[in-house]
Structures are given as structure tokens and as C-alpha cells.
């Protein structure tokens, strides 16, 4: 049954891809609207994972492991979980390092298996490297569509059970040895959401997870994620932050004034746009590019730096707009940036059709090509992290007052109407996550590694609102903050590690050192 289902799924994906290509050829306007729709979804679903843009020329074998659809109720259905293996360093008696693929296709993580953290640790310990794909992502899809009901098995509990089952039962092709846990020491690694999963695996299954490394692990789920932008405000160049703060204040004031509300929307190239937040959410989309910074030029994005350059330097001068009101150079420059996107809206379409979020049908396609629905479903049910301004007016805000929790979370009800068997809650049940430890999560042989200027640090154990942010850093419980680092900076590496920046070489060396210490105590 599993093989037949995989074949049918592949045919469905090919059919969907063919349909998209044909549609684009027939009607360019439809394609533009679809591109704008995808950009809108990306803006709303901002937790798109940071993936390695560095290509690997090494081909690793992929395998499938059979998992039950539901680990807690027998449905009679199984599915194939994909994993890749790097055995180049393995010698009998060596450990297994498994990297959690997280909320993306596991192929996006292959550079980490080749020259990144998995290869670094395996090379130092004669270990076996594995990357395991998360249920519902990549080709590890256990269902035939992404309706509300079909997504009900996409949750923390099922994912944890997947990993535990894999570690206890997998047999590696070409290796004539039993490497299952706990007979063999397994070290679990993850970054971002997968970093939180790594910490959870160690706490929930200390008997089979010998050690774990949580890199930028978002261990504290939250309804309001206001600190994400506050970290960017404090870490970005001062002039850039000042310009964004000035612009958002000015635009919020213009939108709040009935005499200028429609005019400012026209100024930004979105005449007639209904929701004010549909305009100002564009600003947060620009800010989110900070997360894409990386020490490796092949992975790094210059988008945030380019935006800062385009925002210019603070000025007291006022500029007269064609709509009849004056603005600062910050707002003028921001509008120039946004108009590059808004100008793509076809003349035959309205601003709401191009940029609005009022039409529920924009979010209700459920075929298997709608992969944006996956992480968004997890956000809506268990994780949260909704955009919103700071809780106090005393904290300077780079985020519009209109982009609040109500706006950021409304997609949850729009995209996931109640099914026959499952209904998305009004707000995510973040206690499902935080009861495992939240900010205080800790365990022997659990390493916490975060980035100093990572916007997700707000939800990590090193958060400036965490009650345990200053805990000691010990070999048994490493607690490390990489200087001037953004999102899981330790995960990627170069083929020639001597060419990595000193801070990256240092954290990799520290990881090798404490992992070797852990393994020395394995019995």
C-alpha cells in the first residue's frame, strides 16, 4: 500500500506542476496575481525557514523508513519518512548524528550533511551522519491533500514519536551492525523550530537521545512575537532603525486620519486597499530579511542591507507628495521601495485582489502544492509567534500598530475552516510547547546555542525576557551565545574549515569538544 500511495502522490505533484506551467503560459495576468499571492503568503507566514543556498556536489543515498500515520491510534495507514545518510567517516563503534529536517524539504539541509555541522561532528568522532525529514514536508507526506482534517496529524507529539521510532528501529543499509538507540549513542541536532524539537527530544526521551544540540531553538512558544522586531531594531544600523521607526509612525498617523487614509494608500501604489494592515505588513516583510543574513557569502542575503541603503539617512526636510500631503524622507523612501512591488498589480485588478487578505478563498486551496499551509498550521495550532508591536509605548517600534495579533492570526480561521474531525483553535495552544520547559528547558547533555543578534533569540533560552538567560555554560550543559550571529550560524560550514570566520571556527571546535566529552562517558 505504501509504495502505491507514493506513486500516486508523485503523479499528483507532477499534475499540479504541469497545471501551473500551462496556466502561466495561457494567462500572464493570472501568473502575476499568483506570484503576488505567494509573496503575500510569505509575508504573513514569515517563519519561512532559513535554508542553505550553498549547493553540494556530493550525492548522498536516500532511504525510506515506514512510520504509522498515528502513533497513538491505529488507523491502519503508514507512510514513508525520507532520510539521507553520510557514512564517509563511520567506523564500527562510532555514534550516530541525526539532523532534524524541520519545516522544509530535507534536500534543503543536505549541505549540512556534506560540509556543515553533521559532517564536522561525524568526522571528529568516526560517526554516521543522518538527516531525517519531518512528517508532511518534502516527500514525507502521509496524506493526499492539506485540508484541515488531513493536517490533524501534523503536531509536536506525532513528530516526536516519529523520531523516537526511527532511532529505535532503523537499520542502515550497508552497515552490518545494530546502530539503534540506546545501544548506540545518538546525538540529535536541530536549528530554529528543529532546534526546539532537538531540545524536546532530549527532555522527553533521555533514554534514547544520548545528547542533543539545539541551535537557535525556539523553545518558548508565544502568542505575541513582538521581540523579533525589537531585536532587529537594536541590532540594525542606527540610521536604518531610525528611518523605519519614523516611517511607520508617520504612516500609522496618516492611515489613522480619515482625510489622508486613502491618499497614503495611493501614495504607496495601493489605491482602494481596504485593510490598513495589508499596507503596513509590507514594512515588516522588509524587516524580516534581517533573518537571512549569514556569515557564508554563498548563503547570505544582502536584501536587508540594500533596503537600509534605500531608506537613506534621517533628515528634517519634508517632501510634498502628489496626493497633497507632506512626508519625511523616510516615508518617501519607503514608498519608493514598496512601489516596486505594488506597481506589478495588473491594471485590470484591484489592490485588494493583489495585496489584500480579506478574501478567504485566497487561503483555501488544499492540494499538495500548497506547502505554505504546513508550517502555518503548526503556527496556528501550537506555536504562535504572531507579529505585533511592543507591549509598551516606551519601546520604540519598527512595526505598525495595525499589524497586531488579531491581524496576524486571522489567517488561521481563513485558511483552516472546521473539518469533520479537527478544528483549529481560536489561538494556538502554546502550552503544548512550553510545558516541556520553555525558556528554562535544560538537561544533561543538552547544548543550547543561540545567536547574539538573531531575531528569534526572543523565543530562545537566551531571550532577554528569559528568567534563565544567564545560566552557566558547562561541558555537561553547554549554553553558548555566538557573537554577532543571526539564525543557527553554527549549522553550515565550508569544505575548508580554516576559511570560516574565527567565531564560527570557535563554536564548531567547542561543539566537537563537548560532544567528545559526552561520548567518553557513554556506557
From TrEMBL:
Gene Ontology biological process terms from the UniProt entry? proteolysis
Residues forming coiled coils = none
One matching Pfam family is: Peptidase_S28
- Origin, by domain of life? Eukaryota
Instruction: Name the keywords, alphabetized.
Output: Glycoprotein, Hydrolase, Protease, Signal
Residues of the signal peptide: 1-24
InterPro entries the UniProt entry points to: AB_hydrolase_fold, Peptidase_S28
Q: Does the record's keyword annotation contain Protein biosynthesis?
A: no
Q: Which GO terms describe its molecular function?
A: dipeptidyl-peptidase activity; serine-type exopeptidase activity
The UniProt entry's sequence similarity note says: Belongs to the peptidase S28 family.
Q: What is this protein called?
A: Peptidase S28
Organism, scientific name = Roridomyces roridus
Taxonomy of the source species? Eukaryota, Fungi, Dikarya, Basidiomycota, Agaricomycotina
